Amino acid sequence: DRIAACLSLLFVLLNAACCAPSSRSKSTEDAAEARVHYNRGKACLDDILAAVPPKGEYGKASAEFSRAIRLQPDYAEAYSARGHTQHYAGKSARAIEECSRAILLEPDGARPRESLSTAKGMRTLGLIRFSCSRRSRTGSSPSRTEDDLPPKESP
């Protein structure tokens, strides 16, 4: 009687363990869905950049990359791609932030480093243009504000 009860309890426990959804299958599903959103974002960005001159809704591509990141927070490629999107949309500070996150997640990745370098270069170029345009209007050297400066590098 006691053996039958133990076997019955063991069967119930094993059945419950086998039938319960595992967090591993959920994370696999999230990773697959994240890849779908990443690919949609890449396709959208490619379409935008294929136009001459490039034009389009960068927000749509950025939203797809954001969905991918929400599903898979350690998705370095998605951060890098969202950084590219921000760069092309003219938001160099945001592009720098996104590429920096990608590098933290994937320190050996070449693409995030290239994106970060490009974004920093474009931001510097923008500051030079801003400085020159203010100097030509006022005839003097403009004072820089905290907003004009690139973000500080973290140690």
Gist of the model:
With 155 residues, the chain is mainly α.
The total count of strands amounts to 0
Strand content: under 5%
Radius of gyration, in Å, reads 24 Å
**Helicity level:** over 70%
Please, how many helices?
6
Shape: elongated
Given helix and strand content, the structural type is: mainly alpha
Between the first and last Cα atoms, what is the distance in angstroms? 67 Å
The helix/strand order is HHHHHH
Task: Give a quick account of the main beta sheet: strands, pairing sense, barrel closure.
Answer: none
Structural description of this entry:
Helix content is 75%, strand content 0%. With 155 residues, it is mainly alpha-helical.
